[in-house]
Every structure is written in C-alpha cells, then in structure tokens.
Amino acid sequence: MSDTDWELFLRDLALCLATYQDRGPAVVWPERAHTVLPSLDGAYGGEVADTEWRPAPLGAPARRLAADLGHVMGYPVEAYERLLPAGTALPLGRVGADVLLFPLSGGARCRVEGPGPADPRGGGVELRLRAGEMVFVPARHSCTLSEAWAPCRLLLLVLHATP
C-alpha cells in the first residue's frame, strides 16, 4: 500500500463526514479501500467472537487510521474492533457519538434506525454492508448488524466531534 492510497482513502472518509455529519446516515465506498483494508485486517488477532468492542491495539494500522482521520477532521477519533460470527446479530444501539462502521472482511446486513422510536413499518435504512464499504451512523441513530454469512471482522471509528 502506498502513501497515496492511504491519503485517498482518508480523503474520501473526510469528504463523507464533511457532507453527512448533522444530516443523516450515509454509505461510502472510499477510494483505494481494496489496498487499505487488507493492512487494517491483518492486525486483528483472534478467531473467537468478542463479547464487546475492544480498542485497536497500540501500533495497529487501525489506530493510525483513527489518528490520521482525527488530524484531518480536527477532533479525536478512536478505533475499536470486533468479530461478528456467522449467523449472529449485533445491536450497536445509540453510541452517543457519530461512528463510521465497516467490515474489514466478510459482510453483514446493516440496519440504521433514526433518532425516534423504532418504526415497525420499516422507517430505517437497510443495506448489505461488505468489506470496502462503510456506513456513517450519526450519534442519535442506532445500528444493528445481522446475517453475516461468514465471520465478519469489524472496525468501528468513534468520532468525538464537538457539537
């Protein structure tokens, strides 16, 4: 992976955030994801499902991504990892901060609900999220991942933007 790949990837993340923060959820397909994601996925250790999100280890590429994105955006960004086993669901809930969520490998169904009570008639956004695609989930929204066909390694970037 070249520095240019990394910079283009960061640029697309920053553009998504600049466009959609304070507006609503969004899906982004960052340029050069195919070269950046393998470097992020390689640092994840373990095949056993996590019971909670765990901070990306010091020195891990996911930590570098969080630091570089935070530098570009002008606020702190934290990186967390988790393994979603095949056939399980993972409710993310309302985190209290904007987040970028993306599979490093595999894929899962992703449902984002608005800030109000859940609408049983389907008022949310639902999509199939695959490696190379990211979803931006605003702070007051909730998100649920389900229907992973194979174990799905996830990266969560928590954005601590000031209101």
Automatic annotation (TrEMBL):
Gene3D superfamilies per record: Jelly Rolls
Protein name: Uncharacterized protein
Organism (species): Streptomyces asiaticus subsp. ignotus
